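Notebook entry, structure prediction.
Reason for the run: the old model in the group folder had no record of what sequence produced it. Starting over properly, with the input documented here first.
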Amino acid sequence: MRQLRDQMPPSKRKREPASVAGIKTSTSIYQLKVTLRDSHPAVWRRIQVADTILLPHLHGILQLAMGWTNSHLHLFQAGKKSYAEPSPDDFYPVIDYRSVRLHQIAPAVNDCFVYIYDYGDSWEHDVVVEEILQAEKDTRYPRCLDGQRACPPEDVGGVWGYADFVKAIRNPRNPEHAEMLAWVGGAFDPDTFDLRGVNGMLQIFQSSLERQARTR
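New structure, fully documented this time:
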């Protein structure tokens, strides 16, 4: 059975469970589809990250790829388990995610989990493992391959508040049109996505992590 598994292409292979200890470098690249739940039309990103990335670092990548500002609490949910940095204010038990890696909560293609950001607005992101690939030579990870539509503004009231916000800014006759435009800074295009800008920020983020690792 093991010989047969080893002959399978990386995109079809299931990761063997591994302990965190001793994992220092990535063996595979995860391609993830990240979709903001209940967004219509969908706000989504397709990213590639190391299989061994720690969940706190994945949080940082998701913030940059989506366009959030890291201003609120967050957690990951995989099955019935919740992963976050524990706090005395937690309403229910969470697993300390600071030593948990991506492949440990999603070991195979088509596995999925949820990333929740801002418990008030409750932005829920469905994350699906589309492929497990070999790292490409001379390619820097993480990277964003594609995406559509802008990230909603922070504190807009969740997906339903965002839908009302978009209606208001697109209709000059809406009684909240001027107020909403002023609140968002004068202009907002729900249909834009800056792929190049996102990848630039991801490279800065990764370089920062590498510098921190060298100084430890």
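Summary: The beta strands are 29-36, 44-50, 74-78, 81-84, 95-96, 112-117, 123-133, 143-148.
The old model has been moved to the deprecated folder.
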